[in-house]
Amino acid sequence: MKATLRKIISLSLAGLMMASLTACGGGEKAAEQKKDGATGPYANLPKVELLLADSAAKDAAGQLFDEAFAKRLEKITGGKITLDVHSNGDLGNDMDLLRQMKSGDIDIVGCQIAPVVSFVPTMAIFDLPMVFAKYDGNTIDNVLNGKTKTHDAIEAAYDKAGFVYLGIEQNATYRLATSNRSLNKLEDFKGLQIRTMENKNHMAFWTAIGASPTPLAWGEVYICLQNGTIAAQENASDTCLNANLYEVQKYLANTNHILYANQLSMNKKKYDSLDPAYQKAIKQAFTEANQEMRPKMADIDKKSQATLKAKGMTIINYDKAFFDQILNLDTVKKLYKDIDSQVNGLGTTLQNELAGKK
Questions:
Q1: For the domain that residue 292 is a member of, what is the CATH number?
Q2: Based on the structure, what is the number of domains in the chain?
Q3: Which spans in the chain are helix H?
Q4: Which of 119, 148, 238, 251 has the most CB within a 10 Å radius?
């Protein structure tokens, strides 16, 4: 009887010890979860660090967007996903970054659209000159990031290329031309030696209006403008400001020829390897960062142009007749047809959806 009682007591003590250890373990785990702030679907998931790279200059809209995206993602997941952000071309130019994302060496890349065309040919729809110029930011965002045929086609094209399309950041701001020649009318562009990105359609546009385009690495632009190797370049106003182009250029022309948009995309294998909760968080972080940055983009453009003017640049604006003149050129009409052919008619779909046509 005594032996049985001792056995019962012993088993009871062992059970209490196990319960205590379990409670301690659970407490430590709970404390750890509380420490990293993760709750809900992220609480039991492993921590992940992702590498995001961009060529955007410090304080440019693209760089600010990357930082906003990183902060949103970390906040959403309670610190379970962190981003190691490298901007200002630290890891290479746009083409270098996209190649590294393709190979899996970089997880996420933020960059402008033009270089993406080499990897995702469908993105040539953004090369249609002045196609977005008459629409506001909300209309454009609804087509590019909403439930549209254009969005679905872009998403499928990224998937085919081994990427995941996270979205387009823009607010109806544009690439503009800087020059040492006053570009007041179409004839003034004739023979203009202008630097472009490495994009055949961009070059075709400048050729179509009589200029002489040449692709050139961004890191070489300032010195080439300074020594007269080239006479002009085209970029967004904040980029022109942050690169100090007012030191080597006299005029800023609001040509509005290409939408100033930054895409954010991710290596598909890396994305697919993540828990669905993390995948959802990444998409949510983009949406939130886009909503945060869009009103700031218009303000950045306005302030950048004002600062460039204060630093001595002359701002050139155009009326509707100027844009109509360009779009009515036979050479530009041909370019529209060529690009639409490149993207299997998606250019027409884009134009219809922008105009509200089904």
A1: 3.40.190.170
A2: 2
A3: 2-36, 61-76, 94-103, 137-145, 149-161, 200-208, 221-227, 237-242, 268-273, 276-310, 320-327, 330-342, 346-354
A4: 238
